[in-house]
Amino acid sequence: MNSLVLAVIGIALMLAGYLLYSKFLGKKVFRLDPAFKTPAHELNDGVDYVPTNKFVLWGHHFTSVAGAAPIVGPAVAVIWGWLPAVLWVTIGTVFFAGMHDMGALWASQRHKGQSMGMLSGKYIGTRGRALFLVVIFLLLLMVVAAFAVVIKNLLISTPSSVIPVWGAILVALVIGQMIYRWKISLLLTTIIGVVALYALIIVGDANAIVLPDPILGMSPATFWIVALFVYAGIASLLPVWVLLQPRDYINGVQLFIGLGILFGSVLLSAPAIVAPAINQNVPEGTPPLVPLLFVTIACGAISGFHGMVSSGTSSKQLDKETDSRFVGYFGAVGEGLLALGAIIAATAGYRTLADWEAVYTAFNEGGVAAFVEGGGNILNAGLGIPLGLSATILATMAVLFAATTMDTGVRLLRFVVQEAGELAKVKIGGLLGTVIALVVSVGLVFSLGADGEGGMLIWPLFGTTNQLLASLTLSVIAVILLRKKINPLPVVIPLAVVMVMSIYALVLQMGTFYAEQSWMLLVLDIIILIASLWVALEAFIAMGKARGGVDDEDDADNKPVASVEG
């Protein structure tokens, strides 16, 4: 199979999904209204609620949800063969992820920017809300802790990425001032930001930064983790327009340029895919394709974390309701394209099948390393970019997106802590909420020692927890649609598929954890399973009641719907 054919088919299907299916969703399902007054305007506070240009907001949303997961998941899942991975990424992006992200964004901004956890209390019940928050908290904790470890490892293994990764923060601060204070045109700002980022990549490639051991009394691993959490804490408290939003925007543009370079290299070199379409000789110990494929590739097909970003930060910045289609659905398309690029890099970036099999010797092998190595080979063959610089470009891309997910994750974790305080009738301010979020996250990361590997302690539960959260988010959206007398099938069908596969995977993992005597993971697995089943049951009961009920007029519809997108 030629990778060029695969790239063309995948890109065409995802763009068709945006141009056709998202238009149907906007017009017939979510009934987007350009005259609706969004929370960004109604509650504008200059910190969390800020009306934002849809292209800038798309950059924030896309890079926040992307992270390293759409690289890691697909690059691991190709161990079953490239065909199942490609099918799930394309079908999942078009009919699952785009609808999920767009729906969560729509539902939240129709309710004053409330999170899905808060909405679950309104539409499912108070018990459901409390259990929903438990699942959300655990998922965000996994993301923040694990991504800190992933970034630390990449900064150490690819020291040429250090300068562009940290220099990007300064670039973002300047871009925020250019857009909001100096009122410079978005096009000129974008050009300057992209040129600055790629200049930093070139400088970094020529000046790799290897930290001395020790540094300030810490090992390089400990130092990088501490620095990352200090940065994430500060970013969590600053107004979104100062750092978070411009950083995400310019990273989003940079990623699309990076994807253009990768797919352009595929166009010029048309490398053959050396991995099998369906791998009949998976290494011993590899779990079954069904259901593990559907939780291994989470981001890139559908992801519960996306619902947290949609309802946690993006909904508070939406300028017009009709922007939901571009920000939410096309944001998912961007992640799908990244996942497709990761699949091609991890299967067509090696010379022979034997070379590929030497990397994929066991389940969970490959990942970012396979993406960087394979993608670097493709960039070198297609555009003649030196292998060292190719690796720096791809590693920087992976780190930048992991970092944007980490800092958004800390901000969302702070929101969850504050919401939990509301349930307990305790008011928790932004600073205290951030401190609590950081203490819990740092405690997990260093729970197994100063190297920070404790951050990966509960990561095996990420895929299943993430997908269960996606199904719970879809259940809330389905209840809202039913109460509005709108056909919920575009939501209910994906909901059923994701929930069945996630619960199936969670039960299988339970047996694995028991056999390995991983008691903490087993207990958490059981807690997540019980909480998710309970919320699902309450959601199905709420759906039944909604079918015979009436539309709830207090759902923050600031004005009657005058027109719809189309």
Automatic annotation (TrEMBL):
Subcellular location: Cell membrane
Domain of life: Bacteria
Predominant localisation class: membrane
Transmembrane domains' residue ranges: 6-21, 62-80, 86-107, 128-151, 163-180, 187-211, 223-244, 256-278, 290-309, 329-350, 383-405, 426-450, 456-482, 489-507, 519-537
A UniProt-annotated Pfam family: CstA
Entry-linked InterPro entries: CstA, CstA_N
Record domain CstA N-terminal: where: 2-347, 362-505
Entry's family note: Belongs to the peptide transporter carbon starvation (CstA) (TC 2.A.114) family.
Name of this chain's protein: Carbon starvation protein A
Species of the source: Promicromonospora umidemergens
Organism phylogeny: Bacteria, Bacillati, Actinomycetota, Actinomycetes, Micrococcales
